[in-house]
């Protein structure tokens, strides 16, 4: 009986949290984030403010949780695919597009709201860190060249996220194949010269 009671409470908690999250997403289409109050969310979710605060300390915390889940969803797709080839990247893009159109997902729920701008910035930072890790050249370079790598990575990440955002959120009509070619060419254009410079530095060091 104790197990059933615990299970019942957990289910009620999940339902309340889901209602709160859905209410926040709904309100995002009607007002700016800073104007949404706990009472607004509680009224939309058909709960009282006490119930809201039992689950979240603020509206910002709810949005942060949804954003975190959205980033995890996107990262899971990117990490499970091969983004180093046009064919692999095209497949990843198809999965991301399906994710963006699925309102039941965290990413899809934010995709058609003004919060997608904040989400794009989160994704830019994630991608910048990922590209920086993949380049793996900064550890072998001088401080000056390492700074150039960092700038190139940030530039590439910003451009890629901008392309993805305009494509995913309906502002740019391109096929997955065309976009994948554009992204890969952009990355090579941004990082290629820096990697070439790093190779020259390495040759100098060996000499």
List keywords for this structure.
single chain, 207 residues, mainly alpha, 9 helices
Give a quick rundown of the structure:
With 207 residues, the chain is an all-alpha fold. It contains nine helices and no strands. It has helices at residues 2-28, 38-45, 49-55, 59-80, 86-100, 106-111, 116-135, 143-168, 176-206.
Strand content: under 5%
Care to count the β-strands? 0
Low-confidence stretches: 134-142
By DSSP (H or I, 4+ residues per run), the number of helices equals 9
Mean pLDDT over the full residue set: 77
Q: Gyration radius, to the nearest Å?
A: 21 Å
Largest sheet: none
**Distance from first to last alpha carbon:** 75 Å
What structural class results from the helix and strand content?
A: mainly alpha
Helix content: over 70%
- Gross geometry: elongated
Walk me through the topology.
Blueprint: H1 2-28, H2 38-45, H3 49-55, H4 59-80, H5 86-100, H6 106-111, H7 116-135, H8 143-168, H9 176-206
Helix pairs in contact: 1-2, 1-4, 2-3, 4-5, 5-9, 7-8, 8-9
Descriptive notes:
The chain is 78% helix and 0% strand. The longest helix has 31 residues, at 176-206. The chain is elongated. α4 (59-80) runs antiparallel to α5 (86-100) and α8 runs antiparallel to α9 (176-206). The chain is mostly helical and 207 residues long.
